[in-house]
Write a structure and sequence with these properties.
Elements (H helix, E strand, L loop, with lengths): L1 H52 L6 E4 L4 E7 L4 E7 L2 E6 L3 E6 L20 H7 L22 H5 L2 H9 L1
Antiparallel strand pairs: 1-2, 1-5, 2-3, 3-4
Amino acid sequence: MFVSTAYAQAAGGAAGGSGIMQIMPLILIFVVFYFLLIRPQQKKMKQHREMLSQVRRKDKVVTGGGIVGTVTKVDSDHELTVEIAKGVEVKVQRDTIAMVLSRTEPQAGKTPQPANEDKPQGGLLGKLFGGGAKPAQPAPPATEPAPQVEDAKDDEKTDGDATEKKAD
C-alpha cells in the first residue's frame, strides 16, 4: 500500500517539470533561426536600402533583371532614368536596382564611399561555409608557347616507315 502511493507522487512531480523541458527545444530552434537566418537578412536589407538611397546621377547600376546602365536622372525618391544604350533611356523604380557597379565622385565636402564594400555578408552561416569570403581573383592568363608545326613529311610517315629509313 505504501509503495503505490510513493510511485504516484513521483510521477506527478516529474510531469510539472517536463512541460518546460518540452518547450525548450522550440525556443532553442527559434534562437538559432534568429541568429543564423533572420538577423543577417535584416542586416543585408538595411545595407541595400542605404545603397539605394545613395544612388545619384552618372552611377553605373545593374537592375534586378540584369540590365546594366548609367543613371542619367533621379526623377523622384522612387524613380530613376537609366541609359542602357546610347540614346536609349528607361525609367526604373529605385527598388529594382540590384547593385551599383561604380559610383561618381560625391560633391565637395562629402567623403567618398566605394560602391562594393568588402564587408563579409551571410552572417554566421556565410562565415562558416565561405559565403562571406571575397571571391578569389582569377589567375592571369598564362602564355603558352606556340605549337610547333611539323613537316608534312613527318605526318605521312608511319612507325614502320621511320624504322626502315633509320635502318638503311
